[in-house]
Amino acid sequence: MTAGLPWAAPVVPLDTEVEALAAEWVEPYSQVEHLMRARDWLVHLHPGATVEMRVAAMTHDIERMFPGGPVLRHADGNWDDPFYLFPHSLRSAVAVSMWLGALGPVSAQVSVPEVRRLIALHEVGGRQGADVVQAADSLSYLETLAGLTREWVLSGTCSREAAAGKLTYTVERIRVPAAREPAGQWLVWAMDQLPASDELAAVGEAVR
Ligand SMILES: [Fe+2]
Asked: Less packed terminus of the chain by CB within 10 Å, N or C?
């Protein structure tokens, strides 16, 4: 957890029943911190964020919790590959709308089509709040998944150059001006997490 850094968004309490239930639902997901921090960043960027935007932020990647989803080819470094990003986004949108549909009366606290739309657009942004959800995802990625990006390099999943490209892409795709400054700070911080060339050489020696 990195939220203690001075430029991190404050944690936003769960104040609706549907958000409390969504938090329970995503709890077993290995990247749950990334989802919950996306919600915190969303509210930080846009204090008037709707409950649909908040639910979308805290569930946007959840299809990865279920086997059988699209596979990201890390080694290529094609981080904006639409043949990954679109199936990923749409599969999450469908999973969340099915989960909301099964909730019963509580689901009336949100517009299910609106949550679905925002999740479907979370990688690319869009109108009416979708850009802010995407910016929040980007900031949360830098804050919570820089360590994972570092692990990709150490494990040989992708090159250091490709990992740096992922971090840069995460910032460059942001369309909300207010998110650019914190994203620039987080980019420097996240880049520093990537292994230096001497560290990579030492890892190479160890596995040889
Ligand atoms: Fe995400």
From this structure: C
